[in-house]
Amino acid sequence: MKTTTHNLKQLIGLWLALTAVTEVFADPSPVIALSGFDPVALTQGTETKGKDELQTTRGRYRYLFASAVNKAKFESAPEKYGIQLDGYCMKMGPLSGRGSPERWFVSEGRIYLFASESCRNSFKSDPAAFTDRADAPATGTDAEKKRGKELIEHALNGLGGADKVDALKSVRWEAITVYEQEGKKTEMRQTTTAALPDRLRLDYSYGDFREGHALASGRLLEINAADEATMLPEDVYECVRRKLYREPLALLRTRNQPGFVAVAAGPGEIKGAKVDWVNVSYAGATSKLAVESASGRILAVVYRGRAPSTMGEICKVYSDFKEMEGGLVLPQNSDVTYDGKAPSSPKPASHSVALNVPIEPRLFPNSN
Fold first, then answer.
1. The overall pTM is greater than 0.90
2. Looking at CB atoms within 10 Å, which of 35, 180, 298, 319 has the fewest?
3. Under the phi-then-psi rule, with left for phi > 0, alpha for psi from -120 to 50, and beta for the rest, what region is 43?
């Protein structure tokens, strides 16, 4: 499956582990957050300096408070009053790179960080355009839900059959893109493992930089180049889990789970082929699948995501279907558009998809 890039540090796609990960859990050295201002006061619209004797640490940040009351408020609900998304730049999104703890903005009572003044100014102009939240679940009539269930079955047949989909253990996608600057070529590698039904390993390397993320057992770990793992907070975990269930194979594996919803959304056409659209929801991710009427192949998936930094419509159109190991029929390529526009970044020089790849247990530290 071809992977398209739109921001070197923002490529969150589905990546696979390049190396094993040691079970070392590293807590980053905490830094004073928000230039020492009381975070509770900030969420209430007031800049009030905190006191050294009234402080607490949460994750990578140390917070100061103006009063014992505010400190108690924070400690009772740190996910509400603390820096959101573990400090990732709110304009660029989770896993994109963190903002400065001294460059913040409060929106709807939540504190966000930013990597630059340009990022903060963009967010200020339209916060909703950069806010990645859970999608509303698909809704429809009983008849539309019944038809939606039929389309899911048709899509399973298009993949080779429900039994073959359910027997799949893992999928690996890999893409290598070469960037050239001032005559120097640098290779960017993105690899993904979806260890079905619910584990995801993302890895990214660009030149000497390497970083990974492992989602498993209800948590998300960030893994640095030294193979040290740091647990990320719940809001980042939820964002990355939604990415897992944008992938049709992972999504269809949840069809018998509580909360799975499929609602028929009418006929359409993809590159001259007649399709039936179906809205599918699970775990806060709602995607629109184009199921080819004749074959049941999933020809496209549409969902809300960063396009490339503001939230918008992402559309992946699949092609080059091939029967693979175990009789599964999967696309080997895809074309991606963001709000109807093709990306301007280079296309991968190589890409591949592999099934049932060996899963090194240490790729998912301490997972069950």
1. no
2. 180
3. alpha
